[in-house]
Amino acid sequence: MLEPGERVVVGTGVAIALPHGYAGFVHPRSGLAARAGLSVVNTPGTIDAGYRGEIKVCLINHDPHEPLVLSRGDRIAQLVVQRVEQARFVEVGTLEALGSSERGDGGYGSTGGHARLSTAVGHGEGTES
Ligand SMILES: O=c1ccn([C@H]2C[C@H](O)[C@@H](COP(=O)(O)OP(=O)(O)OP(=O)(O)O)O2)c(=O)[nH]1
C-alpha cells in the first residue's frame, strides 16, 4: 500500500546485461500516472550497461488523497533501452568559445507558451525573497 505522497523502492526481480554503448531508462507508465498518480521519483531511472544487480524502481504516489495498492506481478514501470554516446568534454576558457546558436542562453520557459512563463524564474511566485 502506497499512501498519498509516499515513495518506495521496489525490486523487479529482473537483472540484465546491456551491451556497452547502451543504457536502460526506467519510465513511469502513463495509464497508472493518469489514473492513480503513480510515477517514478527519479524518472527516468538510469540502468548502466555495466550494472548486474536487480533493477529496482523508486515509485511515488502523487495522488493527494488515494492510497494505491501494489501487488507482486503488477506492471508498474517500463524499461526503454537506448544507444548512448560516450561524450568527450573539452574545456574552453570563455562562453563565447561555445559558439552562437538560435537559442543562446534562453531556457526555463524563455520561449513562452503559458501565462505563468511571463514571470522570470527566481523573481516570481514560488520563490522566497
Ligand atoms: O531506477 C533505477 C536507477 C538505477 N538503478 C541501478 C542501475 C544503475 O546502473 C545503478 C546506479 O544508478 P545511478 O547511477 O542512477 O545511481 P547513483 O545514485 O548515482 O549511485 P551510484 O553511485 O551507484 O552510481 O542503480 C536501478 O536499479 N533503478
TrEMBL record:
Q: Which UniProt keywords apply?
A: Hydrolase, Nucleotide metabolism
Question: One of this protein's Pfam families, by short name?
Answer: dUTPase
Q: Which reaction does it catalyse?
A: dUTP + H2O = dUMP + diphosphate + H(+)
Q: Which residues form the dUTPase-like domain?
A: 2-112
Q: Where is the signal peptide?
A: none
Task: Look up the domain of life of the source.
Answer: Bacteria
Documented EC number(s): 3.6.1.23
Can you name this protein? dUTP diphosphatase
